[in-house]
Amino acid sequence: MSPASPMPRSSRSRAALVIGVAVLTVAATGCTVANSGRGGYDPNTLRIVLSQEPPTLEPCESSLTSTGIVVRSNITEPLIERDPNSGDLQPLLSTGWRQTSPTEWTFDIRTGVTFSNGAPFTSADAAFAVDRAVNSDLQCNVDGYVFGDEKLKLATPNDTTLTVTTEKPDPILPLRISFVEIVPRSTSTAEKVREPIGTGPYAIEDWDFGQKLTLARNPRYWGTAPAFARAEYQWRSEGSVRAAMITNDETDVATSLGPEDGAGDLGVPFQNNETTALRIQATEAPLNDMRVRQAINYAINRTGIVKALFRGLGDPASQLIPSGVVGYNDQLPLWPHDTDKAKALVAEAKADGVPVDTQIRLIGRTAQFPKIAETIEVIQSELAEIGLNVKIEMMDTASQLQYQLRPFPANAGPYLLMIQHGNQAGDAAFTMDQYMLSDGPQADYGTKQFDDKIRAAEALTGQARQDAFARLFAEEPQEIMQMAYLAHMKGILGKSARVDYTPNSATGDEMRLSEMTTAGSDRTDAQ
Amino acid sequence: MYTSALPLIIVLLGVFLLARLTGDPTSLYLPESATEAQREAFAQKNGFDRPLLTQLGDYFSGVLHLDFGTSLRTGESASEMAFRAFPATLQLAGTTMLLAVVGAVVIGCWAAYRPNSLADRFSSLLSMTGASIPDFWFAITGVWLFAVLLGVLPTSGTDGPLAWILPIATLMIRPLGVLTQVVRGAMVSALSAPYVRLARSKGAGDLRVVTHHALRNAAAPALTVAGDLAVGLINGAVVVEAIFGWPGIGKLMIDAILQRDFAVLQAAVLLTAVSIFVLNIAIDACYALLDARVREPARV
């Protein structure tokens, strides 16, 4: 190698140019990321950090947690809302409702309400919004989740009356209607909208995609003005970072925290709607044998999992809905944990020629709930102990959904699927339709007799409805046993001292900003 | 030109086919109880019902017109989403590499100047540690220490200069460690070369020997490694972007993969592939700048 000559003047200029460009590169960034806005503490702004950015704010997609938590009752409102604590339906954009014939319900529309764009709200808007969400080709999530195949006929005799006609008598139509967020007639029916107009206490001020979403108080709101003038949503996928934002006073509310994320005293546990369970693919050997399914239930130590893995943040479950949902059976005992009995059942099945050595896939969704990986490992160990051959498979959401939703993959072999079901509606019919009907979208197995019982229960109202569903939850393990229930989950909401808010069972799906008020400040840097 | 375009075509083809091997996005985007007719309508609307070759042809045709389609997740233009996210990654990657190169040159030269001294051993320990620490652990520990415990830095976000420190430190630690080792090794060789002894015999001072003679000759291997590291950063600092809420291309790509958002994934991959292509040209230009033998063809 020849020696490099001392740098001539031109080279020095070049070097200076390179350094200058480098310095300019850093300076040009201004330490401000492209498209980002400047932050800063504003006492009138409520700061919220979510686990993910809403993909859209389309109101008819508000059954999706990431959308509903922002949209529902904040930007848009339904005709009726469900009290998350009592389960009772409360008037909102509808002041009253009644069943006017077996297949017809009439809703009285609130007067004096305007949308955030200034347009008046009438029954025509209500009819339009329901029709758009339920009858259109938009393939809205709320349509599939709440209404299924049901089509509705809508009529508006005058500006303050809406009638809804169903194909069959529907005793819980008002409950279903409570899932439809009302949008003005100017909303597109050809495609979904990302930034909707609504009648809620807030309206979208700015959505800096990828960065933050800001809502501002709706000056035309018909109700009491919310305490905070603005709400600013950010999102961080890492739970420990969300918890750190709470403890570091960078946010006022942090959602979806786990027990080990480190929110400390600022983490508020609350009962959410979610229940975890193993769905047993009961159409495949050896899982098509009732004794094997019972053995799986005997093998699982629910109480131990809740205590050791969930740190007590949950309750062992004996059914797929938590208390507070119509149909919950408060007399149903936990399926006992009895390893010896489980072993005996497996041995008995094996003696009868059931291929219990067949490999069973134990499928879980990565990060579906805190400690899912450890939970799956514990269950695999418990099932191996009773003589079953179980292999763990963790998948991402899209892959796992192929096993959760019909049509299921062909030739998939026997598998156990970890599911987490949230009954947002507060009525067991939504759970039964999905998981218990033999052709339910998320059910693998059932019988016609049990289907008939479900249909009969769904036609009832009041206490008879409650009793019928409660009876079905007691009978399902005896007749079908498609599930091994695990736990009614609890969530943790991070909440700063300056905000007064009590999370409830709906908080994870619908976080009403108008319920949040200031509670004095512990801040030392308030500007 | 053709040979340069070939890797891009292979990347386009690869991402198109691999994305579709990951599964059907229908279940993610349709209601749980969607009927078969609704599923078919979804597939038809998004072109998933057409033969794979037809889809591929449409995709290449779209690329030629800079039309990558629409995001399934957000309904936005896929190319707009990719172009919006990319500057954030470029800013982060550019600043990180600049600081890593400057730091590595200073520490590497310092260590090489007195090999086996305490300073050399300390810098080796530092750089080996930096090259070995998992970025995820470093990021979370950094948040806990500097944001939660000491309260001197924000946990995450992009607001203000302080928000840059933890992401850059997390991203920089590995390139700094690796580059320091490379610079040190190259400088040790360069400083023992005959031309350096000649320079010293002519009375050149230590600073001049290091900066004007040895460093210039030691720069080529460091440039090669720095180029590789920069490519990794431009690909998207996925962990850093996810933890610190940095709205870059890495996070966008991961989300697109998880959500089976093929159009966005394809747009983001193509954008990064083109950028890496441009970066490689820039590195070649830097070689020419550093070494006259590369700049000027050999004369026989």
Mind explaining what this structure looks like?
The complex is a heterodimer of chains A (527) and B (300). Chain A has helices at 9-29, 65-71, 123-134, 141-147, 173-177, 239-247, 290-299, 302-308, 339-351, 372-385, 397-404, 428-436, 448-458, 462-479, and strands at 45-50, 80-82, 89-91, 94-101, 104-109, 152-158, 161-166, 202-208, 212-217, 230-235, 253-257, 267-280, 314-316, 359-365, 389-395, 415-422, 483-495, 499-500, 517-518. Chain A is of the alpha+beta class and 527 residues long. In chain A, strands 1, 8, 9, 10, 11, 12, 13, 14, 15, 16 and 17 form an eleven-stranded mixed β-sheet that branches. In chain A, strands 4-5-7-6 form a four-stranded antiparallel β-sheet, covered by helices on one side. In chain A, a hairpin with a 2-residue loop joins strand 6 (152-158) and strand 7. In chain B, 77% of the residues lie in helices and 0% in strands. Chain B has 14 helices and no strands. Chain B is elongated, with a radius of gyration of 24 Å. The chains are: A alpha+beta (527), B mainly alpha (300). At the A-B interface, helix 1, helix 4, helix 6 and helix 11 of A face helix 2, helix 3, helix 5, helix 7 and helix 9 of B.
Class by SSE composition of chain A: alpha+beta
- Determine the structural class of chain B based on helices, strands and strand pairing: mainly alpha
Mean pLDDT of chain B: 86
Instruction: State the end-to-end CA separation of chain A.
Output: 63 Å
Q: Helical amount among residues of chain B, as a percent range?
A: over 70%
List keywords for this structure.
heterodimer; A: 527 residues; alpha+beta; four-stranded antiparallel sheet; disordered C terminus; B: 300 residues; mainly alpha
Outline the fold blueprint.
The complex is a heterodimer of chains A (527) and B (300).
Chain A: H1 9-29, E1 45-50, H2 65-71, E2 80-82, E3 89-91, E4 94-101, E5 104-109, H3 123-134, H4 141-147, E6 152-158, E7 161-166, H5 173-177, E8 202-208, E9 212-217, E10 230-235, H6 239-247, E11 253-257, E12 267-280, H7 290-299, H8 302-308, E13 314-316, H9 339-351, E14 359-365, H10 372-385, E15 389-395, H11 397-404, E16 415-422, H12 428-436, H13 448-458, H14 462-479, E17 483-495, E18 499-500, E19 517-518
Parallel strand pairs in A: 1-10, 1-11, 14-15, 14-16
Antiparallel strand pairs in A: 2-3, 4-5, 5-7, 6-7, 8-9, 9-10, 11-17, 12-16, 12-17, 13-17, 18-19
Chain B: H1 2-21, H2 26-29, H3 36-46, H4 52-64, H5 78-113, H6 118-132, H7 135-149, H8 162-191, H9 194-201, H10 206-234, H11 238-244, H12 249-258, H13 262-290, H14 292-295
